[in-house]
Amino acid sequence: MSIRSNRRKPADTPPAFDLLTDVMEQVRLEGTVFFTAELHAPYGIAIDRPHRSPFYIALEGECELQVAGKVHRVGPRDFILLPKAAPHIVRSDPKARIVPFDDWLAAHPLDAHGFTLHRGPGGARRVLGGFFSTDALKVNPLFSALPPYILLRGADPDVQRWLAPTIDFIRAEIDSGEQGSRTVLRRMADVLFIQALRAYAARTRAATGWLRGLGDPRVAKALVLMHQRYAEPWTLDSLARAAGTSRTALAVRFRALVGEAPMAYLTRWRITRAANRLRSERTSLTRVAESVGYQSDAVFSKAFRRVTGVSPGRYRRSAAQAAAAAG
Predict the structure, then answer these.
(1) Is the confidence at residue 325, as pLDDT, over 80?
(2) 3-class DSSP string for 63-87
(3) What is the dihedral of CA 52, 57, 62, 64, to 10 degrees?
(4) Helices marked H in 177-235
(5) pLDDT digits 0-9 by tens, 74-106
(6) Which of 150, 148, 127 is nearest to 63 (CA)?
């Protein structure tokens, strides 16, 4: 006679909540403009556009990038992202004459395909790059955790594994001129941005903001709870209990690592999600407010204005105008 066990098979363990994915899924780049450039030495361009963040991919040749008080030699297939629109200089060599970006662009305008040529007696450098607006990104907690620049080297096989096919796709789309290519390129800018952030988060030892908070078990638990259940009526007491620590310990540790109080972070995350809904949906302001945990339109509007600097209605109108202008 066989004996039947009463033991239950263990249930499948649910996958761990991916906080990085949750934050990056709320990234929306706007107003992205791609360009390609052929630059013959000598050249020097000073770029300082506070609301326009650039990214560059070196296709051929070398140049220098001066940013945040440092000078980097940039070679083929290197990728540079300046997420906070830090002022910087791109030049062929230290002796090159530096020209402000607007003056340089007036002398070397982009053609219909976004191509520009600078003639000179020296060697050529070919660049693929673009600019995107930082305004929509600033409400995302990711923004405060980013450095002035991210430089990924083309010699790194982990980088080239995703960067090389992405470059090929973007170049083919730029050259095609097919209908809808501007939309495709805007989406590819999102892809490039997210890939760069993932690479940065995976290898940096100097993480700041909420990225740094992931290294502390209690702070990480609080972050996950706020991201998974952002619409719940959290208080510092209830959040601390759920994270397995005291109110004071969580408040002190969270601020020390993340750089702001837990409730302030929660507000910013709620507004991040609300802002994306306002840009992409026609849902009423009341429904948007309720979806992120606000039962009062007045309280929601006050929080939204505090984080973004504008009212929800004005934010939605500005986003619609920007989308219409981008085509």
Answers:
(1) no
(2) EEEEECCEEEEECCCCEEECCCCCC
(3) 30
(4) 181-203, 209-213, 217-228
(5) 999 999 999 999 999 999 999 999 999 999 999
(6) 127
d(CA 327, CA 324): 5
Domain co-membership, 27 together with 149: yes
d(CA 36, CA 129): 6
pLDDT score at 5: 40
Domain check: are 194 and 55 in the same one? Answer: yes
**Co-location of 197 and 142 in the same domain:** yes
Contact indicator for 133, 322 with CB cutoff of 8 Å: yes
* Closest alpha carbon to 265 in 218, 319, 219: 219
pLDDT one-digit tens code per residue, 142-172 = 787 788 999 999 899 999 999 999 999 998 8
**Whole-Å CA distances, 274 to 13, 271, 306:** 31, 5, 13
Task: Tell me, yes or no, whether 241 and 168 share the same domain.
Answer: no
Q: Using CA atoms, how far apart are residues 164 and 156, in angstroms rounded to an integer?
A: 11
Lookup result for tokens 């840009």: 279
pTM of structure: 0.79
